[in-house]
Write a structure and sequence with these properties.
Layout: H1 2-27, H2 30-41, E1 47-53, H3 55-58, H4 69-81, E2 85-89, H5 97-103, H6 105-108, E3 115-119, H7 130-143, E4 149-151, H8 159-178, E5 182-184, H9 186-191, H10 194-200, H11 211-232, H12 238-262
Parallel strand pairs: 1-2, 1-3, 3-4, 4-5
Length: about 260
């Protein structure tokens, strides 16, 4: 029994050492990802997608920022609407709901986004304060357009943190309902991955998702996003496009003939 306990202690220390080393490696990607999104914001697009969030929205842990859930959803928007997409990723690594209110909301209010996603609050769990969390969530949700899509907090797997997450998600869903906002089930989507998700969907720091993990995050958003895009930005079929061009040409001809009669 003593030998088993000693072996367990060694494994825990090794895991902690690996997590610390992994976190140090990922910290080097913070300025790289931030610059990527600043550069991406300069690229023009017919639709504007704005993301509010933390390091997960930045794509920390992915092999490249475009493999984050924000990058995946941006490609989905373009594919599903047929329109080019400009991305303003307002997220900041380490953000809590309070810092999102202070740093991200003022920039959001200057924009007129077509699509907004929000995934914030995971960093509140370490220093959990339900009242502060609810206050911050209310300020964020007050500023969002009705079409914003909000994710609940991700699955932390460890029971102590999961108890806090359950309270946070209860608050988030209640406040979202008051604002008639769509909430997507990120927590449940991750939880369904089970032990396979724990073993294969996290970066070396064992906190941030890797490429596989970000695909899971994106899958939590995708059904609600697709439904909203289909309603708000219906894609014309080839036949509809031809009819629209024919109607436009007919209108031009009629206007020209009318002008000729008037002259």
């Amino acid at each position: 029994m003593l030998a088993a306990a000693a072996a367990g202690a060694v494994l825990v220390r090794r895991l902690r050492d690996d997590m610390t080393a992994g976190a140090a490696i990922l910290n080097e990607s913070l300025p790289v990802n931030s610059k990527f999104w600043r550069d991406r914001a300069k690229m023009p697009g017919e639709l504007l997608y704005v993301a509010i969030g933390d390091s997960a929205a930045q794509g920390i842990g992915a092999s490249a920022p475009e493999h984050s859930y924000v990058g995946i959803l941006a490609r989905d928007i373009q594919r599903l609407t047929g329109h080019s997409v400009r991305v303003r990723n307002l997220s900041i690594s380490g953000s809590t709901v309070a810092t999102a209110v202070a740093d991200q909301l003022p920039r959001l209010l200057k924009l007129k986004p077509d699509v907004v996603t929000v995934a914030i609050g995971a960093n509140n769990i370490a220093n959990w304060n339900p009242a502060e969390f609810e206050s911050g969530v209310r300020e964020i949700f007050d500023a969002l357009p009705q079409t914003a899509i909000v994710a609940d907090l991700p699955c932390f797997y460890l029971p102590r943190n999961e108890r806090k997450v359950a309270v946070a998600n209860s608050i988030l869903r209640r406040v979202a309902a008051e604002h008639n906002l769509t909430v997507v089930p990120l927590h449940e989507t991750m939880k369904r991955q089970g032990i396979l998700g724990i073993l294969t969907q996290f970066a070396p720091d064992r906190f941030h998702p890797n490429n596989r993990g970000y695909r899971v995050w994106a899958s939590a958003f995708q059904p609600a996003l697709a439904a909203q895009l289909a309603e708000r930005f219906p894609v014309q079929t080839a036949g509809e496009q031809m009819n629209a061009r024919a109607d436009a040409a007919s209108a031009d001809t009629t206007e020209t003939e009318s002008a000729g009669v008037r002259s």
